[in-house]
Design goal:
elongated; Nucleotidyltransferase, domain 5; alpha+beta; 12 helices; 3 domains; two-stranded antiparallel ribbon
Length: about 375
């Protein structure tokens, strides 16, 4: 729905000639009113077009008088001129923008929220408008509306849902490049962050070290198609998915997927054994490192499972922590056939073995 200014507020667009061209399909007739599917078809496919000989009213900008140029309607197919309001509107955003503006960090411009009659830099303004995020969404919705309208008339919500799905697919492709870059850094065991890795992502080389992640992503985007490059260069800052928080979330999800695969491999084995070690992290928190040994495809595998924070380091409490964590991971303790307790635990290991050995005493 359009939200233009009142007709009396357009006095700044002074007319140089008094001409009356009326039409029920003038886009100004649909300003401020709910739109039906029939109204949308009128605006999108049969909107009023200035006839031959029509003189556009002049607008005083500084010391010069300027007017709307008819050729702009051919150059920008989404543009419509209203004789009622003596100004320009965006047809596509006027019809579809109410469902899309909330997804964009940038508010709608005058072509959507009001008429546009400042023609000093009109083409520059039009180009900026058609490159903004919400206009692109509306353009996709228009394409879907045209396709669905070719059949029997259907609810416009079908077109909106289809357009939303297209935006979702584009964001997924955008996120896929980020995930694969993080995966590359993880496989090569190299850190992601650099000395100065905050701020917007640039496809151009930076003067400072912005980290392996952004450098590798930059190379990946350079080798990709123009659509991928445009998505990274024009994405809103709140939808770039490049912050360290998002990186950590992706790493965490990758860890969960790897752990799930390891547990799946263990479940297909007859027996397994555990390895436990104690370590202290940078915050001086005691934690237990749990790994597992098993045979898969006639090969012995040793895989890390997880770190478990511990509040007590007595042999009995450590044993309880191990058994509880393994149970939470879904491992069948009846299949455990051994344990290895490492590090500085000789006295504790004796106590721990006292509790852990019964779990595996039914071995072959």
């Amino acid at each position: 729905m359009y939200n233009a200014r009142d007709r009396n507020d357009t006095s700044s667009c002074s007319e140089s000639a008094s001409q009356v061209f009326s039409s029920e399909n003038d886009i100004g007739n649909f300003v401020g009113v709910p739109l039906t599917d029939a109204d949308r078809r009128k605006i999108l496919f049969n909107c009023w077009y200035p006839p031959s000989g029509f003189s556009f009213p002049y607008v005083t900008v500084g010391a010069q008088n300027r007017s709307f140029q008819k050729q702009w309607l051919n150059e920008f197919t989404w543009l419509a001129y209203s004789n009622i309001y003596n100004g320009a509107f965006c047809k596509w955003c006027g019809v579809f923008a109410p469902q899309t503006i909330s997804r964009s960090a940038k508010p709608p411009g005058s072509l959507v929220s009001g008429l546009y009659c400042n023609y000093k830099k009109a083409k520059e303004h039009y180009n900026n408008h058609q490159n903004c995020y919400y206009h692109k969404l509306c353009a996709a919705m228009f394409d879907n509306f045209v396709q669905t309208d070719a059949d029997k008339p259907r609810d416009v919500r079908n077109a909106l849902d289809s357009s939303r799905q297209k935006a979702v697919e584009e964001n997924r492709n955008h996120l896929s490049d980020i995930i694969r870059t993080i995966e590359f850094c993880g496989r090569q065991k190299i850190p992601l962050r650099g000395h100065r890795d905050t701020g917007a992502f640039s496809l151009n080389e930076t003067d400072c070290n912005d980290g392996v992640f952004k450098a590798a992503l930059r190379r990946r985007v350079e080798a990709a198609d123009k659509q991928t490059s445009d998505h990274f260069s024009k994405a809103s800052r709140n939808a770039s998915y490049l912050s360290w928080r998002v990186q950590n979330q992706i790493i965490s999800l990758m860890g969960d997927a790897i752990q799930k695969q390891i547990l799946s491999d263990i479940s297909q084995c007859k027996y397994f054994s555990i390895l436990a070690d104690e370590t202290t992290d940078v915050s001086q928190t005691e934690q237990l490192s749990l790994s597992v040994r098993f045979i898969k495809d006639t090969k012995v595998h040793e895989e890390f499972l997880c770190f478990v924070p511990v509040s007590s380091t007595t042999g009995k409490d450590l044993t309880y922590t191990i058994l509880t964590q393994l149970s939470q991971l879904g491992l069948n303790m009846e299949r455990m056939r051994g344990n290895t307790l490492l590090s500085k635990w000789p006295p504790k290991a004796i106590v721990m073995c006292k509790y852990l050995v019964p779990c595996s005493q039914e071995g072959p």
